[in-house]
Design a protein that fits this description.
CATH topology of chain B: Alpha-Beta Plaits
Distance between the termini of chain B: 25 Å
Mean pLDDT of chain A: 84
Strand content of chain A: under 5%
Low-confidence stretches of chain A: 1-37, 333-339
Strand order of the largest sheet of chain B: 1-6
Oligomer: heterodimer
Number of strands of chain A: 5
Number of helices of chain A: 13
Helix content of chain A: 55-70%
CATH topology of one domain in chain A: Fumarate Reductase Cytochrome B subunit
Distance between the termini of chain A: 100 Å
CATH architecture of chain B: 2-Layer Sandwich
Order of helices and strands of chain B: EHEEHEEHHHEHH
Structural class of chain B: alpha+beta
Low-confidence stretches of chain B: none
Strand content of chain B: 5-15%
Radius of gyration of chain A: 35 Å
Largest sheet of chain A: 2 strands, antiparallel
Number of helices of chain B: 7
Number of strands of chain B: 6
Shape of chain A: elongated
Chain lengths: ~350, ~200
């Protein structure tokens, strides 16, 4: 407008200055000078005010307009951020996932080679303490089995084409990936139920206490000569618990945004939901790998807590002494063991 | 071999939607799926422009890169095709596409989108179906390219706004137009799709 306008205005002003009579005439006729801009003899410049792709993209990440078809998503003409998301998904996520998960496996392998299995120091007493009730174990395993299924089927979406596709071929891989997608979508519900149960059951025992500081000071039970005191859950377990809660909420919220596409968010929201979902998920997998290690291979006597629900008394003394002390008397018959009957052989 | 591209000369597009209709008819696209659409920017304001948009058949196509089952691929002519037999309907190609090209038969709650559908540059499908067969037509639509014809949307554009064909040739046509008429709002999407502008 300004370019075209000034070109026209100049001769108009010049002519006005030239003749006062013309000026008066113009004023008498009530014609403002601006009206002469619409001079049909001047060439029109349709490009002067035309929307330009580059200028629109500088102003907003997406170009949107009006559309004649009912699908309103289609009114987004262009979103170059798709290329950025592609870069995240194919480069950043592949490297991040590989480094975080393989790195954790390497750390755990190193821990096993250096420290070996953490044994029950004073050996097994043969007496058992109930650590987790049947319902607690059900909640744990519901979450755990869901998590493993979700983890494997989720990793398949990102890494399957690099690992599994070359091995089994495109047709078989596509069938597997389709099934895995549905498993991922529907197992998510049992994961949510499991996580809610876990939080309801164990939150009260996972709030930070003074003993947690001592646990860290004593090396968290990883230093053989030191005793790391702990209540029902030690500080390490508490960290895993709160991490699982926060990461769980993050993957659940982002996951359901992905499961019900475009209900609450637009295309940028879908990309961001996928970014949050995948980054939190690979971190979650790495943390749970450590959790699985310490609960099985890494520590003698730990798995039975979630297996049979009962742990050895000496294991409890060494790893959860305060829990044992705080236990109501009726729940710990083993605290005051009966003296061996005369004549009875020691177990 | 020619590198196939689309170019919409927005200074000529009159938002008549004939390209949309031509595409739907030629390819017998199912209800709810629009492989091509016309978006009007700054509707009713000075400088308004309409742009006809479909799959741009990108260089380094992001949809092909993010596909978890690698079912999307470029042909020798740069046309981006996909196999509906391998597609799992995850929706990732739609998130990665800068042009909103991938379409799905259903909304997709619980991952039930169905097989992805998009503009094939009227070049049939990327599956195992025989070129020009009725099976190919049913799944992917027409294979005009195999018959030596260009996409119908561009072929029947009444203002010749939409150009399809060898990228170098259509860029040349656009360049000549801009020089002759003295203005041009640019080749929409070319920077994002092909990493290049048309210097005029």
């Amino acid at each position: 407008m300004s370019r075209a306008g000034s070109k026209i205005m100049m001769p108009v002003r010049a002519s006005l200055r030239c003749g006062a009579a013309l000026l008066i005439l113009a004023m008498l006729a009530g014609q403002p000078a601006a009206a002469q801009q619409a001079n049909p003899n001047q060439p029109v410049d349709p490009d002067a005010s035309a929307v330009k792709e580059q200028r629109l993209l500088e102003r907003a990440p997406r170009i949107e307009g009006r559309i004649d078809i009912p699908d309103q998503k289609a009114s987004v003409l262009m979103q170059p951020a798709g290329r950025r998301w592609d870069y995240f998904h194919e480069v950043i996520l592949h490297w991040l996932g590989a480094i975080v998960m393989l790195g954790m496996l390497a750390v755990l392998a190193l821990a096993y080679l250096v420290m070996g299995r953490i044994r029950i120091h004073s050996g097994r007493s043969g007496r058992k303490v109930v650590r987790f009730t049947g319902f607690e174990r059900f909640s744990h395993w519901l979450t755990a089995v869901s998590f493993v299924l979700l983890g494997l089927t989720g990793l398949n979406i990102t890494f399957g084409k690099l690992v599994l596709l070359p091995a089994i071929g495109p047709d078989a891989f596509s069938d597997f990936a389709q099934t895995a997608k549905y498993v991922h979508n529907f197992v998510s519900f049992s994961f949510v139920v499991g996580l809610i149960l876990i939080v309801a059951l164990w939150s009260k025992d996972n709030f930070p206490r003074k003993v947690d500081i001592d646990w860290f000071k004593q090396g968290g039970g990883f230093i053989k000569s030191k005793h790391a005191p702990a209540g029902r859950f030690n500080a390490g377990e508490k960290l895993v618990f709160w991490f699982a809660l926060i990461a769980g909420i993050a993957v659940i919220v982002s996951g359901y945004l992905l499961l019900f596409p475009f209900y609450l968010v637009n295309i940028a929201g879908m990309q961001n939901a996928q970014i949050v979902h995948s980054v939190v998920a690979v971190l979650f997998v790495a943390v749970i790998l450590a959790h699985i290690y310490i609960g099985t291979l890494g520590m003698e006597g730990a798995f039975e807590a979630m297996g049979t629900g009962e742990v050895d008394l000496n294991w409890a003394k060494e790893h959860h002494d305060q829990w044992l002390l705080d236990m109501p008397d009726k729940e710990r018959p083993v605290r005051t063991p009966e003296p061996p009957l005369p004549g009875a052989t020691a177990k | 071999m020619a590198r196939m591209k689309f170019l919409c000369d927005a200074d000529r597009c009159i938002d008549c939607n004939a390209c949309v209709t031509a595409c739907k008819n030629e390819n017998e696209v199912p209800w709810g799926i629009n492989r091509r659409r016309v978006v009007t920017i700054n509707d009713g304001k000075p400088g308004e422009r309409s742009v006809s948009m479909a799959c741009m058949h990108c260089t380094d196509a992001p949809c092909a890169a993010v596909c978890p089952v690698s079912c999307i691929f470029p042909t020798e002519e740069g046309v981006v095709l996909h196999s509906k037999d391998l597609c799992i309907g995850c929706g990732y190609c739609f998130y990665a596409c800068p042009f909103g090209a991938p379409q799905y038969p259903r909304i997709g709650n619980f991952g039930s989108r169905g097989k992805m559908d998009k503009c094939t540059f009227c070049a049939g499908g990327g599956g195992k179906e025989e070129t020009g067969s009725s099976e190919e037509f049913k799944k992917y639509g027409a294979n005009r390219l195999a018959q030596g014809k260009l996409p119908l949307c561009a072929e029947m554009c009444s203002t010749k706004s939409l150009l399809a064909g060898d990228g170098d040739i259509i860029a040349q046509i656009y360049k000549e137009r801009v020089l002759k008429r003295g203005y041009g709002s640019g080749a929409w999407g070319w920077m994002t799709a092909y990493h290049e502008e048309i210097p005029v």
